[in-house]
Amino acid sequence: MSEPSTTALTGTRRQRHLRDNGRVTSTPHELPGWTHVYSGKVRDLYRPDPASGIPTAPEGTMLVVASDRVSAFDHVLSPGIPGKGELLTTLSLWWFDALSDVPNHLHADHAIDDAAESGARSLIPSEVAGRSMLVRALDMFPIECVVRGYITGTGWLEYQESGTVCGIALPSGLSNGDRLPEPLFTPAFKAELGEHDENITFERVVELVGREDAEALRALSLSVYGRAAAIAESRDLILADTKFEFGRDAASGVIALADEVLTSDSSRYWDAAAWNSGTTPSERMASFDKQIVRDWLAANWDKTGTPPELPEEIAERTAARYRELLERVTAA
């Protein structure tokens, strides 16, 4: 993952700047041997601090720490979801391992085994063990690589109005939650924190990153989605849609999968049996993510001022959905 404060994107790409995330539910840790450089809605980013005198990671290494923070409607809420950071990290590491032939930003010796005492894991401070990944800095593409295998959410709203999803024409007669004739690559331009990502056409991606890279990002996204969807199906799960982030390794020029991958925060999973037997959209498409939080907040907040505190019961129910997904995906 590239360091957000210094990542310069060349050509028609933009310079992305740090912005304060505003109200958060936890303060980034002070970690010996590391300097905190950035906080997003969920993740905190650190770089090695050579001045500390503590042996730490090689140059070009970043530490990504997933917090328990949860956001909805562009606000970070309080309290967080208990154990969320560790659940997200564990699921990401499992998917990186399952897709090990796809280049990614993890250090090569970043063992998935929690008991590993050597290699990259040994460099992770104990204060954030279990919720952290040691990664190589990449030059990140300013694109959210979204893949949709099913029609729902904002795609369903657009389809009802125009028969399209992100401008792509679809057959008539589809219902909310239906499987698409084929997965769609529907990219978005990464917005600054606090703003919405902007859905863009493939030709706009070409303008931003060049045709060769645009085609590579599309092919990689569709390929990884197809493989992940098949794995999910073997666990009686539907991977309705997901988003990937990619960056380029400056030394090798290789495009690598970065950030989180195929987690509850970046993907929409449904229970296959419920999808087949449910009679309402809420039954068919109960997702393993923070939808419980969104629904509660929508019913209890008018989206003005400061969001209300989440009830403990809502936070615990959300955590249970995250845990269930992890257990089902990683089951042997």
Automatic annotation (TrEMBL):
Keywords: ATP-binding, Ligase, Nucleotide-binding, Purine biosynthesis. One of its GO terms (cellular component) is cytoplasm. Residues 37-302 form the SAICAR synthetase/ADE2 N-terminal domain. The keyword ATP-binding applies. Residues 1-12 have a biased composition (Polar residues). PROSITE patterns: SAICAR_SYNTHETASE_1, SAICAR_SYNTHETASE_2. It comes from the Bacteria. Its EC number is 6.3.2.6. The keyword Disulfide bond does not apply. Belongs to the SAICAR synthetase family. This is Phosphoribosylaminoimidazole-succinocarboxamide synthase. It comes from Labedella phragmitis.
